[in-house]
Specification:
Blueprint: H1 10-13, H2 16-20, H3 22-30, H4 37-45, H5 49-55, H6 59-66, H7 68-85, H8 93-107, H9 112-123, H10 136-170
Helix pairs in contact: 3-4, 7-8, 7-9, 8-10, 9-10
Length: 171
């Protein structure tokens, strides 16, 4: 008896809200009174540097279009990060808001997805170890380190396109 292979796409396994628009899912969850941490984790899994480069939403434009909700999202991401590290002294809302404003002011041409990815990579230890203290200087430093990786990926993609074009012209 012949068996048919059953394949299930990744999108079919994820809730519709996270498979189609992870940024909107993240905004909805993070701005909720009691955010669904599992849904946030699922949404974050879909972010990548490559997608940020090709499909990202510029931070300054998002703030211009969505104002307070984007700033609240960034503040929520900062607070979530502080909770992850279980820092000795809690970060105040005022501190988190100032850090969010600094990210928008200094990195407004980058994407909101970059902020999410920077925090995700920091949690994975990509930028070093945190010893009981999380502050604006640390987070801004992470952003610079994250952007080094993003720009390396952009350069790699650019070189690949150049090679593809050269291969087509040589054929």
């Amino acid at each position: 008896m012949e068996q048919k292979a059953v394949t299930t796409s990744r999108a079919a396994l994820e809730p519709a809200s996270t498979s189609k628009k992870p940024l909107h899912t993240l905004m909805r969850c993070m701005n909720a009174e009691n955010p669904d941490q599992t849904e946030i984790a699922i949404a974050e899994r879909t972010f990548s540097i490559s997608k940020s480069i090709t499909e990202g939403h510029q931070l300054a434009k998002m703030v211009d279009q969505h104002g307070k909700s984007i700033m609240k999202l960034i503040v929520a991401l900062i607070n979530r990060q502080a909770e992850f590290y279980n820092v000795r002294k809690e970060m105040t809302e005022s501190q988190a808001a100032m850090i969010a404003q600094t990210l928008v002011d200094e990195y407004g041409v980058e994407n909101i997805e970059d902020v999410v990815l920077m925090f995700k990579m920091a949690r994975a230890g990509a930028f070093g170890t945190i010893y009981g203290k999380l502050d604006g200087e640390t987070i801004i430093g992470w952003m610079a380190l994250y952007l080094d990786r993003k720009y390396e990926e952009m350069e790699r993609q650019h070189q690949n396109r150049k090679h593809e074009i050269n291969d087509i012209h040589q054929s």
